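Hey, can you fold this one?
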Amino acid sequence: MYHAIIHHNFKKSYILGHIFYICHVHDFSYVNEVVQIQKEYKVAYYIRVSREEQAKGYSPEGQKSTLDGWLSEQDNWRWVKTYKDETSGKDIKGREKFQEMIVDAKNGLFDGICVYDNDRFSRSTKDVLNIMDDLLSYGIKLHIYTLRHIDIYSDQGRFILTNFAAFSEFFRGQLASKIRVGVKQKMKNEWFGKAPYGYNIESDIIGNRKKNTRLVENPEEQKILIKMRELKSEGKSYTEIAQYLNENKIPTRHTRKDKQSDWYSTTVRNILLRPGVSFNEEEDGISESSKEESD
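Sure. Predicted structure:
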């Protein structure tokens, strides 16, 4: 068996050397073509960006441009396909293009996957390492631009990748915690969320940020709100109030020039039961609930 392998390798080397000799005699450029055919390495790009990251300039175009530059530095790499997701890096299951890429990897569409940073795959350390191992089982290698000078498949390289991935995961957790704290603090002093019916939201622009976000009355909607309260105080049901608004062609917030939107009893109920609306919610709410069921 051992002698058979040696004989096979010797025969392969002899044939290849003979081809090179013939190409050299007739046209040297053919040698380069043979080498190119032998060494061509097909790669795919995976690009991911969330809306928040894109707003900060971490664009898909920027990632692709960086990967294109990296590709041009490699003599034998050839791009074949780009997969792009615009979603969070928290979960890989809901990423349509990522899942398509994994299927294509299993089918041998390419030899390697290029990605700008490890957190483009996932901010979960476990996910990054598992994906890398799964791809390798298909004969596909992962190439990370920010770690391009490191062999991530060596023991030392895997150790570095693990630490980078762990840092990304830690950073995401810290950022989420800070955002929660910031939102809570903002809600103490400013309005946070969608404007309720009858109001608009206004903010002061200081630098590039919105400050002192507050509610201001919308005059037109306030008139409608007053009428809704009057009808409610007269004992009208939510359905009857909605019917009145539709018959009098009073527009909803969703009404557009080319689109008519109707009032519904649930919409009226939600508006009038919003905290801050002044009428006896406890008694009327119970009586209206029974009316609505009978309607």
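The longest strand covers residues 77-85. Let me know if you want another pass with a different chain boundary.
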